[in-house]
Design brief:
It is a single chain. The chain has three domains: 119 residues, Leucine-rich repeat, LRR (right-handed beta-alpha superhelix) (Alpha-Beta Horseshoe); 164 residues, Leucine-rich repeat, LRR (right-handed beta-alpha superhelix); 153 residues, Jelly Rolls. The chain is built from two helices and 22 strands. Strand 16 and strand 17 form a beta hairpin. The longest helix has 6 residues. It is elongated. The termini are far apart. Keywords: Leucine-rich repeat, Repeat.
């Protein structure tokens, strides 16, 4: 049936459950909506023109009609809206509201009446503040406020007890209310590119269900000392900040899988890190010390690791011998023979590839240097597809060497090493030079070494 028949002529309106209005220049009579008592979905992309300008408000009247009781999803994405009527609060059954990619500056107080709302998208607008009554949206599970002009969040946001996802990246936040710690259900918090932050509230450490925290480019100089209380945290992005160090309590994260510290120009040291953590610390020119012992890098529990661990850090020539033994460069390939185990039936848990790299200086706009491992030659048999590692890194204005460490557990990419195996690993680099390298084989007994005992079996060629 033609949309115009039931929108313009009120034919068959009683049976309508879903409605997509994408016809341009159609003047819609709102009276037919009074008969749509089964309507649960409405997608409004109508492009009504006014004096040659785009739509500046909703073309449909949202006055109390019978449809309001059933409407559950309203999609007003990319409608050029600059105004939202207060009557939107009459859609009391609404579960999903999409207002993304419009020209909204404010939200009406009526929107706080949508107590059944679960998903709310407001990203890519120009909203500078939220209504104080936002805390009444107690059913809300996902709130996307990215790419607006928010300077703060209302204290009442802590009342959103069901909220699981909060996206507030690319705004103008200078602080967060302490009530943010009351979001007991929160699992994802993204605050990237809010580079006016002055401090971060200690209350955030109460978010025991938080799994992902993104603080990229937030101008932070320190993290709360109790950040170790985030017991469920699996991913932490604190890259491009002003940290000198990070709290020792970070070692208390039993589930932390990745931590990104890249572009932290002032970072000088790292504390002990959790067992299962992959560390990314590119372009940290002030980094003076690294926890290079196995237990500090999270490699003491190697039998539990199922993924690789990569880290690239700058290093002066005088520091390299202290970090690990290395050999004179012998071409682009790493070649070694796997020695027999130190004792009978001692298993190999994994191996660490260490490369000393040099690359020319780069401007920020230039393409990153590439380091690639695509294949392994084991006992003169090329095994393609076992490893497929592409690592990108940049070199800042200072010409320094970098050290790349890649841990690979036994069986990674299907490669099982045994004593006597002859192994060759071709290293491909576009304009970077591999100057020196070393292979560390990690055996089962290494996990119980203590004190100053040798932690690695270093292969000598």
């Amino acid at each position: 049936m033609s949309v115009c028949l039931f929108v313009l002529e009120e034919v068959g309106t009683e049976a309508v459950k879903g409605l997509i209005l994408n016809a341009a220049n159609v003047q819609v009579n709102t009276k037919p909506f009074e008969k749509m008592d089964r309507l649960w979905y409405c997608e409004h992309v109508l492009e009504v023109r006014r004096d040659g300008m785009g739509v500046d408000s909703i073309g449909l009247s949202l006055t109390p009609v019978s449809a309001s009781c059933c409407l559950k999803e309203l999609n007003l994405k990319d409608c050029h809206l600059s105004y939202l009527p207060d009557e939107i609060g009459n859609l009391i059954s609404l579960r999903t509201l999409d207002l993304a990619q419009n020209n909204l500056n404010t939200l009406p107080d009526g929107i706080c009446n949508l107590t059944c709302l679960k998903r709310f998208r407001l990203d890519n607008n120009n909203v500078s503040h939220l209504p104080s009554g936002i805390g009444r949206l107690t059913s809300l599970e996902s709130l996307n406020l990215e790419r607006n002009s928010l300077c703060t969040l209302p204290d009442t946001i802590g009342m959103l007890s069901c909220l699981k996802e909060l996206f507030v990246g690319n705004n103008k936040l200078s602080h967060l209310p302490s009530e943010i710690g009351d979001l007991d259900s929160l699992k994802i918090l993204e605050l990237q590119h809010n580079n006016g932050f002055h401090a971060f509230p200690e209350s955030i450490c109460k978010l025991i269900r938080l799994r992902g925290l993104n603080l990229y480019d937030c101008n932070l100089s320190h993290l709360p000392s109790g950040i170790g209380g985030l017991a469920s945290l699996g991913s932490l992005n604190i890259a491009k900040n002003n940290f000198f160090t990070i709290p020792d309590s970070i070692s208390n994260h039993p589930r932390l899988e990745t931590i990104d510290l890249s572009n932290c120009a002032k970072l000088q040291s790292l504390p002990k890190l959790p067992t299962r953590t992959s560390v990314f610390a590119e372009r940290c020119p002030s980094l003076e010390s690294l926890p290079l012992e196995i237990d500090q890098l999270g490699w003491k529990g190697l039998s539990e690791l199922q993924h690789g661990v990569s880290i690239v850090v700058p290093a002066g020539d005088e520091e390299v011998p202290i970090w690990f033994p290395y050999h004179d460069g012998r071409g682009p390939n790493v070649s070694f023979v796997v020695p027999p185990p130190p004792s009978v039936n001692q298993k190999i848990l994994g191996w660490i590839l260490r490369l000393l790299l040099w690359a020319p200086q780069q401007a920020p706009y230039q393409r990153p240097h590439e380091l690639c491992i695509e294949e392994v030659i084991c006992n003169k048999i090329k095994k393609e597809g076992l490893l497929d590692i592409l690592f990108l890194f940049r070199v800042g204005p200072t010409d320094v060497h970098h050290v790349w460490l890649q841990y690979m557990p036994q069986g990674y990419g299907g490669l099982q090493l045994e004593g006597g195996d002859e192994v060759e690993i071709p290293i491909y680099a576009n304009d970077a030079l591999v100057k020196n390298w070393a292979i560390d084989l990690i055996y089962e007994a290494d996990e119980i070494h203590k004190g100053t005992d040798t932690l690695y079996q270093v292969v000598s060629i």
